[in-house]
Amino acid sequence: MLLTVHTVVMSVAITAELGTPIRLHGRSSLLEWLLHRVDRHARGGAAVVLSGEYGSGKTVLLEQLAVHAGLPSLDLTGTPGERDIPFAGLNRMSGAGAVTLPEFPLSAPEPTSYQRLWRELGRQLGDGPLLFRVDDAHLLDPPSLRALAFLARRIERLPVLLVLTITTEAGYDHPLGDALDGIPHARLAPLDFSDSMRLLYGRTDFPPSPEIAEEVVSRAEGNPLALVEFARALTGKQSVGLAPPPRVPPPGGRFRGEVRRRLWDLPDRARELVMLTVADEELGREDVLAAAPLAAGDPHAWTSAVRSGLVVTTEGGLRPAGELARSCLEVEACPGELRDARLSLARVFERAGDHPRALRHRAAAGDEPPERLVGQLERTADSAERHGEHETASRLYERAAELSEHDESRATRLLAAGRGAWTGGDPQRTLAMTRRARTLVHSAGPRGMRDLLRGGIELCDGRPATAVRQLTEASTALLDTDRELAVTALMLAGDACCVAGDYRGYYELAERAEWLRSPEDSHDTALILRNLTAMSATFRGRHEVAAPALREVVRLAERVTGAAPLVLAGNAAFTLGEPATSYRLATRALRTAEERGETAQLPWASVYVSLAALLLERYAEAESRALEGVRLSRALGQRNRMIDHIALLALVAALRGEPETVELRLAQATEEGLFSRGLGRPDAFGSWAAACAELAHGRPVRAVHRLRLMDYGIGGFNPAVRVLAAPHFVEAAASCGEHDDAVPLLGAFDHWVSSTRSTTRMALSHRCHALLAERAADADERFRAAIESHRQSGSGLELARTELLYAARLRRARKPTAARELLDEASAIFDDHGAEHWAARARAELRAVGRSDAPRRSKEAVELTDRQAEISRLVAEGATNREIAGMLYVSDRTVEHHLRNVFAKLGVRSRTELAKLLR
Asked: Which molecular-function annotations from GO does this UniProt entry contain (predicted)?
């Protein structure tokens, strides 16, 4: 069958009569749902409206329903030519076996037609249930569709499975308006990448190479019909990359034919509006009014254009209904009409002072000689790039490439367009540019740029192990033509090694970086190369070498201009145990990326802002930054960065003592691809978070086990995170008597701390030695030293945890008075930080030393914690508990718990009262 793969795995969303979304996976699930409805109602029936864009496989699904249901079928298909003839649809119905229906007089009143349809169906259904299939219901005449909708809303009284299909993207707000309201609705979503690949390989005569297959799948945009027609059109040369694959489906196919029909069925003014969207993908209403005042001012033209499904409305403007539709329109349009649209837009943007956009449209219209235009386009693109307008630069470079005569120059300009798209945060466009340049690349420089772009995308949304290879090759190829880009590739390769846990590969890159260093390097280049050698020494445990190199990196940061070097400097400061400096540099990296339009760098910089906030014990900020990082990474298609942020969210919850939230967030990271993508660094952070959660639960043996898994995870041994987690390993090992395992790791931690001179980490070192001390006097001395260092560094939550551990030891030594003094302060600190689990532990210790009442908090009881304030704000905005849980990556039960506390603190009894109070 044409869409076998599609029908097995596609997700279908059904909105039931009560408005509750039901999630079904696969077309077979849709059939099971319908049959279940029939079984549940005995001789009753069920109805569903099945919608999807043109070519999404609705007709094929109807065919498969007939096969799987094993029922006689009654069929009806809407026809545009009879849409204005009353009851033409009902008069065309054909049935299997003895199923027949009477003719409906063209002048019959509608109530009469409903009664006749109802009576006749009831008479014909004496022998059993019937499958009633209505394809293209949006093309039926209004009376017929109203009669069928009337039947569908009362279908439970007849043993009929009624399935109506409609094409939604055609904008058919049919003359009937809401005629189909009240009927369960299912939508066929576009095919995802893996299903598209399987369908493509199943339909082509010449199996394409992976790169060509990716390009075709990207162009088909998940439309099964377009994908099948692309597959049939692929030639042998195109499949192996000796010729570029087709950009649009073949001219004789159904998909192009449908686009052509819709375009030329439009009135002239509506077609003029469509031509404007073909010329420019993002137009505001003011642009449209200025370029085509008569068409834009004609409500009928605007409505016709939208109803055609060729364009969609945006906030105040128009855009094409997808790149596939735009590409088809470009080849099907009248060349003169399209040229007029481009010249009109060029004049509009010239008057508005937007010269880059005006130049792009003049170039597309062929208004000047190509040689002259190419030079103008490149100069304007360079200027746009310098001003951070990377999307504009990308479009200009692409237009210059289309006007270029030679392969090499065309490839160079396409790759420049890809670089602009990547920097501006559009990885899909970047991939499209690299694919178009693939067959044109012949020399090392363009090949290196192509590998750099593909490797950067793979690092953020693929397998980092593959990115290491691509980026290393890119660095080698670019070295003779663009030293700065070569160093950038080396930097990204290093980050890919860290994400993958490939530290041996990192050491090799660091050796190359040391060889590349030169006194002539810019500050940005010098910092990148120095950071590689400094972090390599850190990972090897050579802290006496690493510390001065890391400090040099931090010093160089004061003179760099790029966002990426600042991210590295923030990490260097974090490694040195200087959280305030790390936070300052990471936030500066974020600000620089925003100012320079380097959108692709924002999720990376956000990781280190969150880490620095964590080290500063600003847990609420660390969590909010990580949540924002998740949203931003998802929007930019950087799934690996998103998993980085989810792992950090788990660590924040672990350090706060929220085991349930840790478990939920780690499960989310796994679902997003933590293991399938081979992400070693977030895996190590996840093991650390899981161990902290076990400690919070009072299960030290399991915590030790979790921390040992860090050495055998996806990335193997992770030296950086392992040393960072050493204090928790020591705490867990000391609690279950495994001192022998803790001593060597504590030695490594001490070696690192002594080189960084971090007061915060020195306090943790003292605490670890106190936990392992055999003599009470040694333990007391170390605990006191730890408390003093905590106070100097300002690390409140770690101070409270140290006091809690020390108090437990004092209680066992029968010194309750000293223990109570420590626990009073610890309990107040835990309350102030919203660490409810640890606060409960402190209160339990207080009861054990004879204190029956809880200590007073250091803040007014009515003050909300950061988490409670955030949940309250979302409630006031109208979010449900489930929606809040999804946004914050916590459980529904956690949200309910915090809301109960909020209600009690603020004296409110409902969400409505809370919303009013916060307005």
From this structure: adenylate cyclase activity; ATP binding; DNA binding
